[in-house]
Amino acid sequence: MDLEPRRITSRPWLHTTGLAALLFTVTLIAHLGIIANPGFFSHDEWQKFDHVQDHGYANFAQAYGRVYAGNEFGVPVRPLGFLQQGISATWLERAPVVPHLFDVALHATIALLMLFALTSIGMPQMLAWFAALLFALSPLTTMATGWVAASFDQWYTLFVLIACWLTYRVMSAGLSAARTLGILIAASCAILSKETALILPGAMVLTAFAAYLQRRSDQPMRWRALAFVLALAAIPLAAYMAVRLPALANSMAGHATASYTPSPWNIPRNVAYYAAYPFLPNLAELGGIVFVNPAWIAAAILAHLALIVVLRRYAGSWYTLLYVASYYVFVAPVLSVQILGSHYLYGCAIPISIALGVLIWNASRRNETIVLTSSIIAAVVLSAHTLKTQSVLYGDGVCQSTFLSSLDTRMALEAERRTQRIVITPQTGARSYVGIRTIFARERYAGATGLPAVAFADPSKPEANASATVFVEMTPRCKVR
Q1: Nearest residue to 140 via CA among 276, 38, 302
Q2: Cβ distance 127 to 3 under 8 Å?
């Protein structure tokens, strides 16, 4: 694999700083659709807003900023991520740009960390920058960045990336007090960000193998050092699992929500769907893949397989296997569950961005037009997918903002009339799912705050007390009237 760095003749520090600033700026500009979104993806964000508004941030922090067992492993126990989301929630109503801008800035920061890590382990600076840019623009990162309640995926990926970079440094330069402490802190922060961080030891092993592949002619594998850092990282993971063991037992026994109950029969389907997603540019939410033509899914899988085949030509079999393992390690904990999520793929954007960057870099240096053109087309498809997902998030956010504004106005009016219940019937073409997501499990819309209860019409359940009920409609423009 041709990865020889090109010599920079003057002011290398200034050059690096300029590239970092450019990467950060491009990332912000490329996510203006998220930053400008006046609404949010689901009820999750608004439930946190309600809690902070009703009880204050201190109460919120006490409720969410701790580790406890939970009823099942699908119940999120993520203190670090929740503490941040509680702060973001305070801005949801008065300045939605603040939580969105924070998540985009966090994404840009992770891209910068990726640039720094790749450069520090010997990757040519421009290749590292290009790979980090592909990560910043990847559709695999868009949902986690645009959905405020999914920032857990950003946080845990950030700390996994730090731990893996330090692992690489240990394998290439040996143990040190700073690296040891850094891995312990990163592992602790990762597991406090999201349960999926249990994949950290696997990611560290893959990183150690990458270090060995790059330097095997110079030095053997540092098995003792690897065993030490793995044991070190396992300490906070084991402590977390010790607390949550009853919840895990419930989930494994099938006593959890059906969508989070693991089953080996889900694995083949999920392996295929997660491989296809990057190359399905019209699909925003992965859950909607069941409505996609199977021919398009097959084509997307073949496109990903083609990337793997060409990567083998440039990088060899071991690096190709390393890519496949690295891609799936980030979704390993969810491969056996029924539920699908685009945001789960956030960490997967790192290996696919590096792989695509290597293909474009090598093909351009070797003047191999077919591979270069195909790789650039793949990058364009991924970018188009990012824009599509942003447009869906923005459209739903605008709809939600209109829905809430008109609904709250109507609720205040009906409260004066002593109406007990408002039932919404969606008109043809209305985005009823936006409204349902917005009010789901929120006390404000359940009649517990002195305002009328709100529900969407259910034809199978006639209203028992129609005299105290007002029937309204949700229009295709998302207004309640």
Answers
A1: 276
A2: yes
Tens-place pLDDT, residues 247-280: 777 766 666 666 677 789 999 999 999 999 999 9
Best CA proximity match to 305, nearest among 255, 374, 360, 214:
374
CA distance 103 to 146: 7
Dihedral sign computed on CA atoms, order 160, 340, 44, 41:
positive
- Cα(291)–Cα(441) distance, rounded to whole angstroms? 27
Minimal CA–CA distance to 30: which of 86, 95, 107, 97? 107
Indicate if the pLDDT at residue 199 is higher than 60. yes
pLDDT at 463 over 80: no
> Tens digits of per-residue pLDDT, 51-99?
999 999 999 999 999 998 877 777 889 999 999 999 999 999 999 999 9
Q: What is the reported pTM?
A: 0.93
- Residue that is written with structure tokens 């990611």 in the block: 203
Dmax of the chain from CA atoms? 83
Please tell me whether residue 257 adopts helix, strand or coil conformation.
coil
Distance of alpha carbon 138 from alpha carbon 130, whole angstroms = 12
44 three-class SS: helix
133 vs 360: CA distance, rounded Å = 13
Taking each helix axis as running N to C, give the angle between helix 97-120 and helix 151-173, from 0 to 180 degrees, rounded to the nearest 10: 10
Give the tens place of pLDDT for each residue, 92-121: 999 999 999 999 999 999 999 999 999 999
Query: Rounded to an integer, what distance in angstroms lies between the CA atom of residue 235 and that of residue 113?
Result: 25
Please, is 458 exposed, middle or buried when counting C-beta atoms within 10 Å of its C-beta (0-12, 13-18, 19+)?
exposed
Q: Characterize 351-379 residue by residue with b for buried, 16 or more Cβ atoms within 10 angstroms of its Cβ, and e for exposed.
A: bbbbbbbbbbbbbeeeebeebbebbeebb
Q: Rounded to an integer, what distance in angstroms lies between the CA atom of residue 305 and that of residue 452?
A: 54
Two tokens at 214?
Answer: 């790059």
Helix (DSSP H) and strand (DSSP E) numbers for the chain: 18, 3
**At CA 120, angle to CA 210 and CA 166, rounded to 5?**
60
Helix (H, G, I), strand (E, B) or coil at 424: strand
Backbone angles phi, psi at 114, to 5 degrees: -60, -45
Q: What distance in Å separates the CA atoms of residue 34 and residue 146, rounded to the nearest whole number?
A: 6
DSSP 150-194: GHHHHHHHHHHHHHHHHHHHHHHH---HHHHHHHHHHHHHHHHH-
Place of tokens 């087309």: 377
d(CA 231, CA 252): 25
Q: Is the confidence at residue 5, as pLDDT, over 50? A: no
- Which run of H or of E encompasses 470? strand 469-474
pLDDT band at 12 (very low <50, low <70, confident <90, very high): low
